Amino acid sequence: MIYFNSGDQLLKFFEALSNPQRLKIIAVLSEGKQYVSQLARELNMSRPLLYLHLQKLEEANLVSSDMEILESGKAAKYYMLNSFNYEINEELIFKLASTLTMKKKN
């Protein structure tokens, strides 16, 4: 379970969810772990672009990754969705607003 300890974590969470491709990744991973190659094929996305999106999701603690040795002897990286369920309300934002440190991007 993910908990927000700071306003910066809350912002990373919202930023990660603000992209339609990342929402599609979350939807696929909600059905179970996926190897990068499978995920790229299913989403019709290049691996480099997929890795950029996965990095954002991992920074927001929405997904986790691990390596596995396949029967062929090759190492394969897979991703899984971290469980999350939040109630975002004014009380949470008030509590975390004083901890914001991120600079606004120009």
Provide structural commentary.
By secondary structure, the chain is of the alpha+beta class. It has a single domain (7-83), classed as Winged helix-like DNA-binding domain superfamily/Winged helix DNA-binding domain (Arc Repressor Mutant, subunit A), CATH 1.10.10.10. Helices cover 47% and strands 15% of the residues. The protein is built from 5 helices and 3 strands, in the order H-H-E-H-H-E-E-H. It has helices at residues 7-17, 20-29, 36-43, 47-59, 90-97; strands spanning 34-35, 63-69, 75-81. The protein has a 3-stranded antiparallel sheet with strand order 1-3-2. Strand 2 (63-69) and strand 3 form a beta hairpin. Helix 1 packs antiparallel against helix 4. The longest helix is centred in the middle third of the chain and has 13 residues, at 47-59. It is elongated and about 50 Å long. The termini are far apart. The mean pLDDT is 90.
